[in-house]
Amino acid sequence: MTRIAVFPGSFDPMTNAHLDVARRASDLFDRLVVGVLDNPKKKPLFDVDERVDLIQRCVADLGEHVSVTAFHGLTVEFARMHGAGFIVRGLRAVSDFEAELQMALTNRKLAPEVDTTFLMTALEYGYVSSTLAKEVAQFGGDVSPMLPEPVAAALAERLAEGPRV
Ligand code: PNS
Questions:
Q1: 82 in active site
Q2: How far apart are CA 111 and CA 41, in angstroms?
Q3: Which residues does ligand 1 sit against, CB inside 6 Å?
Q4: 3-state class of 87 per DSSP?
Q5: pLDDT (tens digit, 9 = 90+) per residue, 114-150?
């Protein structure tokens, strides 16, 4: 039986915590599809194609069984579209748990055949979030412990461009 999982998220942008979870999931599943949510209601710093491209560069060494694609709508529909029986989500701290439990139970109600699996991120990335990394970078702090190298470079470039109109 082929075990297929999707790893959905906003990934604006991908952090070392996300990458750590993707790496762990890539060891567990036969196929892993990283799904970048294209949410027209949000104004991300990186558009969906940029986020997909950055993640592709970050996961390139994980193997051919890992792919990256954009999606919109429900995560469970995205999972079904790829024949995935699993949704992967990362947990950094207890504080993540409540929202994640609510999402997992909602997804189970919508699609009982799809199970959510939680992977603990490495201890060293327990504090890392996309939002904080963007804030630290904006004020000139060092984001190299938080972000994969291509992401840190893209973020520096984006912030140097100044505010987008
Ligand atoms: O990286 P994030 O922002 O924590 O990811 C959240 C995400 C994209 C997994 C979640 O918002 C999601 O699944 N959105 C798609 C819409 C959906 O399926 N909603 C119902 C389940 S909560």
A1: no
A2: 24
A3: 8-10, 37, 74-75, 103, 106-107
A4: strand
A5: 999 999 999 999 999 999 999 999 999 999 999 999 9
Radius of gyration of the chain (CA): 16
pTM over 0.85: yes
Residue length, the chain? 165
CA dist 35 → 52, 76, 81, 82, 103 (Å): 8, 11, 12, 11, 16
Confidence of residue 19 (pLDDT cuts 50, 70, 90): very high
Over the stretch 1-18, which tens digit does the pLDDT of each residue have?
999 999 999 999 999 999
pLDDT digits (tens, 9 = 90+) for 39-51: 988 899 999 999 9
Say how far apart CA 58 and CA 78 lie, in whole Å. 22
What is the C-alpha to C-alpha distance for residues 137 and 104, in angstroms, rounded to an integer? 32
- C-alpha 80/C-alpha 102 separation (Å) is 20
78-85 average pLDDT score: 98
pLDDT of residue 162: 81
Pocket probe for ligand 1: among 103, 105, 118, 121, the residue whose CB has the most ligand atoms within 8 Å is: 103
User: Helix or strand or coil: residue 123?
Assistant: helix
- Closest of 147, 99, 24 to residue 7, by C-alpha: 24
65 is catalytic: no
